[in-house]
Amino acid sequence: MLEVKLDTGFNIEVDFLLPGFFKRFLAWIIDSTIIFAYYLVGGNLLSDWLGSGSDRRVLVWFLFGAPPFFYHLLCEVFLNGQSIGKKATRIKVISADGGEPTISQYLIRWLFRLADFPIWILGSVYYGALPWWCSIFLFAGLACLLATPYSQRIGDLVAGTILIDTRNRTSWEDTVFTELAEDYKPRYPQVMQLSDKDINTLKSIINSVSKSGDYDLSMRIADRIRSKLDISSDQDSLEFLQTLLKDYNYYSTN
Length: 254
What we know:
With about 250 residues, the protein is mostly helical. It has twelve helices and four strands; from the N terminus they run ββααααβαααααβααα.
């Protein structure tokens, strides 16, 4: 399994697993099956309902065709970087800097899907609307996957995103919420100088260290944060990071 090292908000490299081609292809098959089933079932129902001479046919078919067209964009925006196929195969889209992609990154990635998988070209070539050599663009997305070190398609390169394998890794959907005791007293108000990305990374690192016992990582992160925020603390590294997370929750809700 290939890995990629990405720099987090604390200038610490974190390893991410890259999904193999088979997993990506399987996710594509699942998503394509869902879209095909939607067209097959919905098309038959609409044909029976509209009949042959309905004035509403064009409008209704346009509205019917819109959801599959926006399927990948809507799924990745609202399902945190995953379509149904990606969720089933446990892969997801993240930003190339290790954080969650922005909506604009999802949009750019989706727009370039036509360049990566231009199936419409095959139909145009078949019916003579385009010359035969245009069919080479059908392989543009595959060639890009094979040629780039992080297996990125054209849309990923332009949007600054990559696909990762979430198997055996800390869930990227974990929230920063931490339950606090009613009499909890915060220690480090400087924590509010950290960005949302820093806090999300911090939660992920705490979970990872707790599971793997990689205390060298927690010590490096703790030292970076102490230096960055000018904090003096007698807590051990993991306890310090956990206190920071609790303090962030306290100040964010009070």
